[in-house]
# Entry
Amino acid sequence: MKLMLMDVIEYTTSDGPGFRTSIYSSGCSHQCKNCQNPQTWNLAAGNPVEVDDLLKMVMNFEFADVTFSGGDPFFQVEAFTELAQKIKANSSKNIWCYTGYTFEQIVANKHLSMMLPHIDVLVDGRFIEELKDPDLLFRGSSNQRLIDVQASIKKGETVLLDYNPFNLKTQAKHASSALQFQHV
Ligand code: SF4
# Structure
């Protein structure tokens, strides 16, 4: 399967904790006001790359974890799910994924939620200019959340990642209703 990619950045420290390989996909339909990467909205703006070739690249960066960004990786959910599955089968790298969808929108969608069993942290929600906060870690606006995906699947509710650079731990959010996961 092929992915349409804008760029791959090696050993970056800005899209999650530690050194990471950041994969920037093309394709996004959220049209957030003052998006920093509007050139990524068009799927055809990217270059086609085989998932297995990208996997080799990711594995070559031995000490880097992985971030899916864009664009919105959920715009190419089948290919990113295949990539995430293969990364997990071949390494212990953690995977963060940025998206303009909310976690609850993804959970409720059978097609989009196929990627959830294979990623560790979801940075969710559209960028909202009025909620922009430069002090936020790994996010642009305060509506966006760092979600511990596997803890959320296990508990059946949204669990936020309480990020501490010296100790990765999680904190349960008081969810009003249980989530129905479809791919677990
Ligand atoms: S989801 Fe991200 S890439 Fe898409 S419009 Fe919003 S800020 Fe831009």
Q: What stands out?
A: The chain has one domain: 2-148. The mean pLDDT is 92.
